[in-house]
Amino acid sequence: MQSEAVPRRRFINWFLGTSVGAVVAAVVYPIARYVSPPRIPEPSTAQIEAGDTSDPAFNEKGFKIVRFGADPVIVVKAAENDFRAMSATCTHLDCIVGYQKDKSRIWCNCHGGAYDLTGRNVGGPPPRPLTPFKVDLVAKNGKPSTIVVTKV
Amino acid sequence: MNPPERRSVAAWLDDRIGLSLLRDFLSHKTVPMHRFTVFYYLGGMTLFFFLVQVCTGVLLMLYYRPGADEAFESIEFLMTTVPFGWLVRSVHAWSANLLVFFAILHLVSVYFLKSYRPPRELTWVSGALLLFLMLGFGFSGYLLPWNQLSFFATRVGTDIAGVVPGLGEWTLRFLRGGDRVTGATLSRFYGWHVAILPAITVALLAIHLLLVQVKGMSVPAAAEEEATRRPAMKFFPHFALRDLSGWVFALGVLAALAATLPWELGEKADAFAPAYADIRPEWYYVFMFQTLKLVPGGEVRGIEYEAIPILLFSLGGLLLVLVPFLDRNAARDGRSRGWTIAGIVALIFVVVMTCYGYASMLPLYIVFLTALLLALFAWITRSPEAQ
């Protein structure tokens, strides 16, 4: 006589169904994990030296882009002994910004985003300001000459 | 003992793989003749450029080395030192553009002729997915030379994928192989470009071509009477030879373009240099690029404004794939004014934004020139019965 609690056919179907599910999960899970790149801790950078204030790049273009850890930071010469630094990654779609000396503005060529010299987004599509960095001019031979950029 | 019977190679093969079945099929296959018949050539032309891509792509793989320190240099070597390396790369780049161009033209013509109506819904769906795959090929192949343009295009393109709510961050890291566009991204894109996308494409293309054979050519509602009046053209040899003539002509155009306007390599990617002036993506992405430029910065409930056009474009893509299931009128009598108008509006938007993006009327002239060439080709390839 057949038991009424769990008929044999239903039990086997359930057993096979879950087995197939387990096999699929056992294949899919490692692949899904494999294709997600691991998060590698990066050495955190707090401060860098961004070269000399007399760097010809400042006279020619008014700016230069320096390496702050793995990220680009733009250093702009706003006036004599007035240097500004901020993240060079556009907050719109991740392009790298430049500086338009004649218009005294940070400008992204990708989609026409504009920022003022404090990093505030003032035109075009960027949704947020650029992350600001602190700039100190360290004296060498009695004259402020080395640009030091520090995370705020 | 009697000598073995001498038989032809064709008969030998026929015994083993049933060639006569193919021959029978081809001898019975016909193509309806009417004033829109010219549009039947566009799929074949797209297939031709895809085959060119496969051949030149395999050749490029012999010299290309993926990796941030090697990719640009290997293409430089290919273009300056390898005999005809410049030609192979230029043909690959030009053919990629013509492939996308003809795939779009094929899709647009099928859309307006309502050829997606039952029972060809799946032919449409597989075709629309193939177009997206071609755009994926374009996007992944773009990064491989590792130049400034490709670097920024990939930064922007993958960042756009990151806008998708919820899944955005995972997608961005999955595509880039990390948080930033680096050599790891290049390895991934190379894998997509030469292995994953081709495998999916071949499977989907086989389904697409099989469905076209099984269901035959769709006759637009407006040409049904004409198609019954005029005798159909035999596919083999008449239509196939016309197809082949088009392919030979296309090869000539491709060679001329590659030889006279070789594809530039540009400057090597630099993650610490600003994007250069007038940077813009390939022509088929310009309408989206220009739209993104026009959306002002800002956030609403934590969602940036730029996410809105990106989500709308994604929705547009989804609607495109699902058209056969949404357009009930076309299913009923082969006509649907609403969807035709929607298609025209979308087309005008794309052309206008592309012109705006280039600050030039050239894209519009290309549209007119294409229409003119199609009319000319329709006249040249008209059936003998109609002459």
Description:
The complex is a heterodimer of chains A (152) and B (387). Chain A is elongated, with a radius of gyration of 28 Å. In chain A, strand 2 and strand 3 (71-79) form a beta hairpin. Chain A is of the alpha+beta class and 152 residues long. Helix content of chain A is 22%, strand content 38%. Chain A is built from two helices and ten strands, in the order αβαβββββββββ. The longest helix of chain A has 28 residues, at 8-35. Chain B is mainly α and 387 residues long. Chain B has a two-stranded antiparallel ribbon with strand order 1-2. Chain B has a two-stranded antiparallel sheet with strand order 3-4. In chain B, strand 3 and strand 4 (303-304) form a beta hairpin. The N and C termini of chain B lie far apart (60 Å).
Distance between the termini of chain A: 79 Å
- In the CATH hierarchy, the third-tier topology of chain B is known as Cytochrome Bc1 Complex, Chain C
How many distinct domains of chain A?
Answer: 2
The SSE order of chain A reads HEHEEEEEEEEE
Number of helices of chain A: 2
The beta-strand count of chain B equals: 4
Trace the largest sheet of chain B across and list its strands: 1-2
Uncertain stretches of chain B: none
Total discrete domains of chain B: 1
CATH superfamily of chain B: Cytochrome Bc1 Complex, Chain C
CATH superfamily of the largest domain in chain A: Rieske [2Fe-2S] iron-sulphur domain
